[in-house]
């Protein structure tokens, strides 16, 4: 949600891809792609954003913490990031999502969004369940 120099962003994408492959992810067994090249992520985020109320987003603790670190000048991107996360999950009709404790509320937003969408437009999105890792 913070502006980055294009060259740095491109390098970060390459570095992240290298780290994923170094962890043992086998590209012959899974699909790796650059999310920013798939316009449907942003398109679904827009649609879901039109179904999400602002007070719900303002209550999320991540918004409060990051906004405080940005001198009370949180950006729209920061506010709506959980909606983009919900779109990322729902776009692929995910049924289970691995999350850390700090992301449970964001997954709950995805669950609520799926239920709201399904109630309004008919059953379309599965309601994803959290897979919490134990450390």
UniProtKB/TrEMBL annotation:
Record GO biological process: mitochondrial tryptophanyl-tRNA aminoacylation
Keywords of this entry: Aminoacyl-tRNA synthetase, ATP-binding, Ligase, Nucleotide-binding, Protein biosynthesis
Homology family: Belongs to the class-I aminoacyl-tRNA synthetase family.
EC number: 6.1.1.2
Lineage: Eukaryota, Metazoa, Chordata, Craniata, Vertebrata
Gene Ontology CC annotation, any one: mitochondrial matrix
Protein name: tryptophan--tRNA ligase
Species per Swiss-Prot/TrEMBL record: Climacteris rufus
Listed InterPro entries: aa-tRNA-synth_Ic, Rossmann-like_a/b/a_fold, Trp-tRNA-ligase, Trp-tRNA_synthetase
GO MF, one example: ATP binding
């Amino acid at each position: 949600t913070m502006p980055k120099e294009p060259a740095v962003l491109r390098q970060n994408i390459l570095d992240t891809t290298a780290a994923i492959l170094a962890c043992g992810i086998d590209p012959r067994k899974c699909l790796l792609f650059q999310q920013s090249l798939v316009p449907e992520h942003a398109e679904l985020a827009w649609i879901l954003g039109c179904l999400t109320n602002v007070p719900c987003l303002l209550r999320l603790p991540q918004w409060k913490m990051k906004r405080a670190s940005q001198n009370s000048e949180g950006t729209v991107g920061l506010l709506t990031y959980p909606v983009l996360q919900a779109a990322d999950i729902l776009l692929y009709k995910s049924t289970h999502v691995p999350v850390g404790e700090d992301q449970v509320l964001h997954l709950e937003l995805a669950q609520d969004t799926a239920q709201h969408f399904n109630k309004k437009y008919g059953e379309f999105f599965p309601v994803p369940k959290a897979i919490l890792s134990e450390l």
